[in-house]
Specification:
Elements (H helix, E strand, L loop, with lengths): L23 H23 L3 H27 L5 H20 L8 H23 L4 H26 L2 H20 L19 H29 L4 H35 L3 H11 L1 H20 L7 H24 L6 H19 L4 H36 L1
Helix pairs in contact: 1-2, 1-3, 1-7, 1-10, 2-4, 2-6, 2-7, 3-4, 4-5, 5-6, 7-8, 7-10, 8-9, 8-10, 8-11, 8-13, 9-11, 10-11, 11-12, 11-13, 12-13
Amino acid sequence: MPRIGFTADLLRPATGDASHRVTYIELFFDLVFVFAITQVSHILIHHQSGLELVHTLVLAWAVWWMWVYTTWASSWLNPETGAVRALFVVMMFFGMLVSIAIPEAFGDRALLFAVSMVALQLSRSLFTILAFARTRPAHAVNFVRISVWHAAAGAVWIAGALVPEQARLWVWLAALLIDLVGPRARFWTPGLGASDLQSWNVSGEHMSERVSLFVIIALGESIVVTGSTFGTGEIDGATFGAFVAAFAGTVLMWLLYFTHNQRRGSEYLEQADERGMIAQTAFTYIPILFVVGIVLTAVADGLVLERPTGETEPWAAGLLTGATAVYLVGNALFRRAVGGPWLLAQLIGAAVALALFPLSWALALTPLALSWAVNLVLLVVVLADAVALRRAARRTDGDREVR
């Protein structure tokens, strides 16, 4: 392995601000995924059915997987070097092609979607092998394993693009399963075995900030959908109320994650002795629940803005309550994954949000009333979270005084 690879040092410094700082090329790269999230959300805005919901979830997870693998790689690669910047530009190009293909990914542009996604994944992992080869051969072998898994999943993604449309979903679900199992199996590969968890040490500050930025991207899509729907429709009292409800919901979701969870996750990962598995759980698997919850809420808010009064349709009610429950469960799981206790209010809030689905008919709630009811659930959880944190701080201060 040392005989191959780049002669220049393309890795981040081990210490100092540059070891964890998010760079401008990473933010530039994120712009492609702003577009991708918009494309994903608009599938459900224009085509409302259970099948399209499944398509949306598959595509959202594929988009997230491309982005989060890049975040892992950029925790080690130095984006300030010319070669790594060139890699990001190449990935942006493939990411643009993926994003363009998303609306017709299950139709005429399936091959463009699959080939571009596989090209993005393999270009990054193969580059990282060469970046590690001379200085950290164990890490390079780890990315050989990752490349094998990318190639295996990629073959299934491309095969799914070539089969008839009615079979495509099942093939792509199999490809997605391969992608999901890989990190948990530590990328076990015949002849190479499984990755050593010690090779997964990443900067907690960098990983936390990058994932937080993706949550911001998803929240930004909620703002875009709310603003564009409200701005193009007829403005009256009910529509204005729906606009305020949608905006308030976005703010509450932001508060729920960024007030306490984001900082706690960064500090816990930075202090952990073995960061790999923690980062994998807390910053790789769980955040997809944030993204799905926010994106589906944005779609639901758009539907409420279009028709705030009258009978609440099952589709809009299911999206609004289900998305809120998913987001709350995601926050509860994240809190637990970064060493915190289960916050009962988050789990109860998720159950109450789901209960609002049948209650919307029993109580004859309008879409606008249901939107505010969901916001009330979020508000109570945010307040309960603040109270729990304050009590924990008081207990800590009391223990220090006793000592």
